[in-house]
Design brief:
single chain, elongated, alpha+beta, about 20% strand
Length: about 300
């Protein structure tokens, strides 16, 4: 009986050892599986890293369509070439900008030089009688040199007027200074060096025929007109004070606070009388009236588009 008990105990011990060995083998298998999965994940990440490092950041798909860089013989983009082209484009832009700025500065300097030259060739004449026309004033100063332009302006603070006379050269302007005190009409004129140049008139507006020159003798140029004053009110103002108005052009914009007008009369005498209206209040503003350099041309009616 003791032998049987020993054999059964040994059998139980052997069974327990076999169960332990089986459990250990199972654990080893699980460890191997987990190790294999971990190695597989690590392999996949490393593979992706290797793939990205092999990509060329200068490849065509990495650039927008506006870039057109040439390829090298091996098919890759050349970093030096790209940088060179970008630098050249930037330099060209800077060169163009510098050229445009230089051209603007040159134009500005040329304009100032031309304006200063015109000022040196111009004299300022004041105390001009209302009956004196631009032609008569230019005739007085023509003895000093060639008169390029003559502009008579109305003074709202005086019954007398002033003018600017521009000569072809500085010698004519210096000689004109000696005419100060000369009687012209009923008053002696004052002649001084001018501080401003005569603003040129657009050549397309100047008279083109003898008829248009005659129209200019009957036309005045009126400035500083109140914006609230209508064209009918301007016409009534000049007709009541000077005579019949045959044509009137009232102009203005959204930039200036006042408007201007060209008033053509039926008689040249009415235009001379209108010069005395400088300083009179029309609306809320004192107007300025001067002889007109340009005729009031009739408006051209354009055919309607169908």
């Amino acid at each position: 009986m003791a032998a049987v008990a020993d054999n059964s105990g040994e059998a139980a011990a052997a069974a327990a050892a076999a169960a332990a060995a089986a459990a250990a083998a199972n654990d080893n298998n699980n460890l191997v599986v987990e190790t294999t999965k971990s190695e597989s994940k690590e392999f996949n990440v490393q593979k992706l890293v290797d793939m990205f490092t092999k990509l060329n950041p200068l490849a065509k798909e990495f650039f927008p369509s506006s870039y057109h860089h040439s390829q090298t013989k091996n098919g890759n983009f050349n970093q030096v070439t790209v940088n060179k082209e970008v630098n050249e484009n930037f330099s060209n832009r800077r060169r163009r900008n510098n050229y445009n700025q230089g051209r603007r500065k040159l134009n500005g300097r040329a304009f100032r030089a031309q304006r200063d030259d015109s000022i040196r060739r111009t004299v300022y004449v004041s105390d001009i009688d209302q009956t004196i026309t631009e032609e008569r004033l230019a005739g007085l100063f023509s003895n000093c040199g060639q008169v390029v332009d003559c502009r008579v302006c109305g003074d709202p603070h005086s019954v007398l007027r002033f003018a600017f006379v521009e000569f072809a050269d500085e010698e004519g302007a210096r000689a004109a200074l000696n005419l100060g005190g000369t009687m012209l009409g009923f008053y002696p004129v004052r002649v001084l060096p001018s501080k401003t140049a005569i603003l040129p008139v657009n050549p397309t507006f100047l008279p083109r025929s003898e008829d248009e020159r005659e129209m200019c003798t009957r036309t005045v140029y009126c400035t500083n007109i109140d914006k609230k004053v209508s064209q009918a009110e301007v016409k009534n103002f000049f007709e009541s004070a000077c005579g019949e108005v045959t044509r009137l052009r009232l102009l203005g914009d959204h930039v200036h606070s006042t408007r201007i007008a060209f008033v053509e009369f039926a008689m040249a005498e009415s235009a001379i009388i209108a010069l005395n209206c400088s300083g009179m209040v029309l609306g809320t503003q004192p107007i300025r009236v001067s002889p007109s350099k340009t005729p009031v041309r009739p408006r051209v009616t354009r055919p309607a588009l169908h």
